[in-house]
From TrEMBL:
GO biological process, one term: fructose 1,6-bisphosphate metabolic process
Part of the intact protein present: 177 to 944 of 949
Family classification: Belongs to the phosphofructokinase type A (PFKA) family. ATP-dependent PFK group I subfamily. Eukaryotic two domain clade 'E' sub-subfamily. Belongs to the phosphofructokinase type A (PFKA) family. ATP-dependent PFK group I subfamily. Eukaryotic two domain clade "E" sub-subfamily.
Record: residues binding Mg(2+): D119
Binding site residues for beta-D-fructose 2,6-bisphosphate: 476, 533-537, 571, 578-580, 638, 664, 670-673, 741
Reactions this protein catalyses: beta-D-fructose 6-phosphate + ATP = beta-D-fructose 1,6-bisphosphate + ADP + H(+)
Domain Phosphofructokinase: 17-325, 406-696
Name recorded for this polypeptide: ATP-dependent 6-phosphofructokinase
Keyword rRNA processing set for record: no
Binding residues for substrate: S164, I165, D166, R201, M208, G209, R210, E265, R293, H299, T300, Q301, R302
List of residues binding ATP: G25, R88, C89, G118, D119, G120, S121
GO MF assignments: 6-phosphofructokinase activity; AMP binding; ATP binding; fructose-6-phosphate binding; identical protein binding; metal ion binding; monosaccharide binding
Active site: D166 (proton acceptor)
Length: 768
């Protein structure tokens, strides 16, 4: 856990100077990374420097190496691209260029470098570090510098951050920028979808990814595309063109009016021949007679404000990079900061680069199996999810009756982004496995009062991946409104398995059904709860569906009011955030918008806290000069305190500000449910839904006695390093704060500490 207070002097007593640069292609989130590195460096008592224009800045030196102050990076979280510039620098590829770079670094007194870029930039960084001793020696030998001058700089620390929209770096599940790029792609494909539908057209959409199909596959899962082409998994079979036509024609025969094909820039066939959008277009026109257009998304994919995930990733990784610099010794190999299934980790930089290159080599040698294996396991999982939910399996129709399960899907609680995407994926996976997916409409009241149970067909759920709300209807009521009647309905419809999608009520419902198994045998079937709620307060998972959509909606809202606050006059907005008694949404939203303070129910609000925060605000506004009239935000979770309401907080701040600045309250309310679900929620929904049905299958064929065991009623969750099913009784007993309707442990607490650190709330001397 990051300590709350800064350490004015690092452990070894030497004040470090840490340089940060962005290099290679720009990626959304790079600014958030630079902000985090600069502020964390200052908070740790060191000096921060920005190297402008990537390696060009090192080679040219002078004004391109600038000391950064705390306030220099204000407002950078929401900016796309990179504000310190990036460049492709040929000179740095030569030793001579790197020698000049070394000289400039020593002159500026910089002894550590955080490089944010793709594999090329990180290769350059590692080479620079390995050559460093010899470069320093050469500077002495050629009398450019003296022994004394270089003595403190015999060692250079390098830490890598992966900033790249392609997500092509091995060793990390996500690179900074990849999810923002996925946002841009999904926005584009969603728009193309409506015109394709209107004209009954086919569209071939080319997305970025020269050596990596991550963007293409994730976009295909998110948008329900009909076909996808990637570099590392070329289409199988000699005549893949005919196979593709069969799939597309089948989708048309089933009633689809649009056809979307997503092609990665580097898509190839098994003979390494490029598969071009125009070639695909000709096939669609000539063989299927489809009115077909090609859309190349190009540089729009790099642009725009970073999404919530990238701001969070870049911030957490930037903080970790500074910690890694301070931890390193001359012996430690250079690390790259990674993320593996939601854990920020450090990996050896050079190994990550080598692994990345070996994917390209495997593709070059036509060893596609190896190429897929070398990618992160999540990637292969998403590819399978795509196939399971898009390509119709004809053989499923001949599944014998005794192998075909009747799987019920029900939504409980408030709508959350991804509920429909999960229902679509579950229904399609069921159909492909020869099972019968049954939608229970309008929750338990729908089942009990109206017997609303309907079979879902492949085409029924088409397009659901992009819809917000709940297509099958949702209701807050839990089955205890009439357990006997519920059991009767389960029996009547012969449910063999149940998928409950929803928030804390869904969790509660599962607990009730499990307990009622003793009296009602109809409930002795496998049952799984797939958490979906913007509050992200369901025990058993670190992330629920809808929470990412909510964060993005809230972030956009806050970006807008922050802008208005700084444009008009010095103004603080106190924003009331949903989340019930869980401070997750408020905390992470605060982290990604750069809030001054966040009030959570876990921590509560007291007078001392308020007083300190008001002082902090006063100091910050006193420090603002001329043009720099920033708007500031304070987030308050709706249940953080009964006394200090949002309005009261705004009043207190206004009163204390004594006309030096203004304070207003803002309540985004239902805006937080978000409109169209975010790509992350869509892909998570699809992956978790498929896994849930696979789990139901695993248990459904067991003996009656085994099916009644408590582990057959579980919550599926993303936890630490994987996707895990935890029995509901275990969660209820050990992890749930029933009264507060949230998990007992808030795993995200360290993020609150980082937020306080980067907002200057816990580092007063740095902020002023
Ligand atoms: P992206 O792939 O997202 O564009 P990248 O970091 O891989 O990012 P590159 O153009 O490959 O982009 O590299 C950026 C810069 O890093 C180069 O212009 C060069 O200055 C430096 N660089 C790349 N490879 C090397 C190398 N082998 N040795 C030294 N410097 C290198």
């Amino acid at each position: 856990e990051t300590p709350l207070v800064s350490q004015p002097v690092p452990p070894d007593g030497k004040k470090k100077r840490i340089g940060v640069m962005t290099s290679g292609g720009d990626a959304p989130g790079m600014n958030a990374a630079v902000r985090a590195v600069v502020r964390m460096t200052i908070a740790r008592g060191c000096d921060a420097y920005a190297i402008y224009e990537g390696y060009e800045g090192l080679v040219q030196g002078g004004d391109l190496i600038k000391k950064m102050a705390w306030s220099d990076v204000r407002g950078w979280l929401s900016e796309g691209g990179t504000l310190i510039g990036t460049a492709r620098c040929m000179a740095f590829k030569e030793r001579k260029g790197r020698l000049t770079g070394a000289k400039h670094l020593i002159e500026a007194g910089i002894d550590a470098l955080v490089v944010c870029g793709g594999d090329g930039s990180l290769t350059g960084a590692d080479l620079f570090r390995s050559e460093w001793p010899s470069l320093v020696q050469e500077l002495i030998d050629t009398e450019v510098m003296t022994e004394e001058q270089v003595a403190p700089y015999r060692h250079l620390n390098i830490v890598g951050l992966v900033g790249s929209i392609d997500n092509d770096m091995s060793s990390t599940d996500a690179t900074i920028g990849a999810f923002s790029s996925l946002h841009r792609i999904c926005e584009a494909v969603d728009s193309i979808g409506s015109t394709a539908l209107s004209h009954s057209r086919a569209f071939i959409v080319e997305v970025m990814g020269r050596h990596c199909g991550w963007l293409a596959v994730m976009a295909a899962v998110s948008t329900g595309a009909d076909f996808v082409f990637t570099p590392e998994r070329p289409p199988e079979g000699e005549d893949w063109e005919s196979d593709m036509c069969k799939v597309l024609q089948k989708h048309r025969d089933m009633g689809k009016r649009k056809t979307i094909i997503i092609v990665a820039e580097g898509a190839i066939d098994r003979e390494l021949k490029p598969i071009t959008p125009n070639y695909l277009k000709d096939i669609c026109v000539n063989r299927l007679g489809l009115d077909t257009r090609v859309t190349t998304l190009g540089h729009t994919q790099r642009g725009g404000t970073p999404c919530a995930y990238d701001r969070m990733l870049a911030t957490l990784q930037g903080v970790e990079a500074v910690e890694a610099v301070l931890d390193s010794t001359p012996e430690t190999p250079s690390p790259v900061i990674a993320i593996n299934e939601n854990k920020i980790t450090r990996k050896p930089l050079m190994e990550a680069v080598k692994l990345t290159h070996s994917v390209a080599e495997a593709i070059g040698q036509k060893d596609f199996r190896k190429a897929m294996e070398l990618r992160d396991p999540e990637f292969a999982d998403f590819y399978d999810t795509y196939v399971h939910t898009t390509i119709v399996n004809d053989e499923a129709k001949s599944t014998p009756k005794d192998k075909s399960l009747r799987i019920a899907i029900i939504h409980i609680g408030a709508p959350a982004g991804g509920m429909n995407a999960a229902t679509r994926a579950a229904a399609r996976f069921c159909l492909n496995q020869g099972h019968v997916p049954l939608a229970v409409h309008n929750g338990f009241p729908g089942l009990l009062r109206h017997d609303s149970v309907r079979e879902l067909s492949w085409i029924d759920v088409d397009g659901w991946e992009i819809r917000g709300g709940s297509e099958i209807g949702t209701n807050r009521s839990t089955p205890d409104i009439d357990l006997g009647l519920a059991a009767w309905a389960f029996q009547k419809h012969r449910f063999d398995g149940l998928l409950i999608i929803g928030g804390f009520e869904a969790f509660t419902a599962l607990g009730q059904l499990r307990r009622a198994r003793a009296s009602y045998p109809a409930f002795r079937i496998p049952m799984v709860c797939l958490p979906a709620t913007i509050s992200n307060n369901v025990p058993g998972t670190e992330f629920s569906l809808g929470s990412d959509t909510c964060l993005n909606a809230l972030m956009e809202y806050c970006d807008v009011i922050k802008q208005s606050a700084s444009a008009t006059r010095r103004r603080v907005f106190v924003v009331e955030v949903q989340g019930g008694k869980s401070g997750y949404v408020a905390t992470v939203a605060g982290l990604v918008i750069g809030a001054m303070a966040v009030y959570t129910p876990e921590e509560g609000i007291n007078l001392k806290m308020l007083q300190e925060d008001v002082e902090h605000l006063k100091r910050s506004y006193a420090h603002d000069q001329g043009e720099n009239r920033a708007g500031r935000l304070v987030l308050r979770n709706e249940r953080a305190s009964n006394t200090y309401t949002t309005e009261v907080l705004a009043n207190i701040i206004r009163e204390e500000a004594n006309k030096k600045f203004e304070a207003r309250s803002a309540v985004p309310g239902h805006v937080q449910q978000g409109g169209i679900p975010s790509p992350l929620d869509r892909v998570r929904a699809a992956r978790l839904a498929v896994k849930s049905v696979q789990w139901l299958e695993q248990h459904a064929f067991k003996s009656l006695e085994e099916r009644a065991a408590s582990e057959t009623a579980a919550v599926i969750g993303i936890r630490g390093a994987g996707i895990i099913f935890t029995p509901i009784d275990v969660l209820e007993e050990t992890e749930t704060d029933i009264a507060a309707r949230r998990p007992r442990q808030a795993w995200w607490k360290p993020m609150h500490n980082i937020l306080d650190l980067l907002s200057g709330r816990s580092v007063p001397e740095a902020a002023t």
